[in-house]
Amino acid sequence: MTASGRDALRLDRDDAGVVTITINRPERMNAVDYATLQALGEVIAEVGAEDDTRVIVLAGEGGAFTTGADLQAAGEAGSSGDAVAPGVTMDAANNLVHAVLKAPVPVIAAVNGPAAGVGVSLALAADMMFMSEDAYLLFAFTNIGLMPDGGASVLLPASVGRSVASRMLLRGDAVSAAEARDVGLVVDVLPAAELHEAAQKLARRLACGPRRALELTKRAVTLAALTELDEALRREHEGQCELLVSDDFAEGVKSVLEKRRPNFT
């Protein structure tokens, strides 16, 4: 059985105060069900509040960072009558993004493979991102009849500008690690075997820095760049709750599970 909630997260702490939180659902390409989404936000908030935490590194086990919502788990829950309401899932995603942005320590995302859906939002919310050469960011929302969520509608434009963000979000194409580097989304792109050590090296460097100065710098940059965050999350919540019960989304999910192109109406 696929692990869920806190059981799907692995925490490793080194002597420098670097805490690595790894999503450990490789058999689902680290796609997150509701319980895992909720737990990840809680754990980041808890770890960030600990005095001996200096830096948080986010990672994915196996060949993916996280491919977003676990559509298979959602389908199984729906068939059993245990489905989570769309608004509740949106709240969990928003709480996760807030936890990353409000963490009083730097957060680094080590994107080792595909990052899709809310997984992209998670990577964008981090203060810095590394990617392996074969990793990519997939803003797949419109591909399945949805709109960006998890703050992606404001996190991405704040990072790359409106024109580039519109291209990525409206087309729904995969953004390679090389393109992500070219538009300034990542610190560096490395061979997969070197990714973890590169992220840890930067984390250890930051861990030696002045914790309070780094906290206030992060807060200042976040508030300056993301003045529209709360309003964006509200718009996403409203729009996504509408789209999640639409015929187009049902067709989008079905097409993914059946491995075919969707027929939107």
UniProtKB/TrEMBL annotation:
Matching InterPro entries: ClpP/crotonase-like_dom_sf (IPR029045), Enoyl-CoA_hydra/iso (IPR001753), Enoyl-CoA_hydra_C (IPR014748)
Molecular function in Gene Ontology: catalytic activity
Tree of life domain: Bacteria
Entries under Gene3D superfamilies matching the protein: 2-enoyl-CoA Hydratase, Chain A, domain 1 (3.90.226.10), Lyase 2-enoyl-coa Hydratase, Chain A, domain 2 (1.10.12.10)
Family that this chain belongs to: Belongs to the enoyl-CoA hydratase/isomerase family.
PANTHER family in UniProt: EG:BACN32G11.4 PROTEIN, ENOYL-COA HYDRATASE
Name this protein carries in UniProt: Enoyl-CoA hydratase
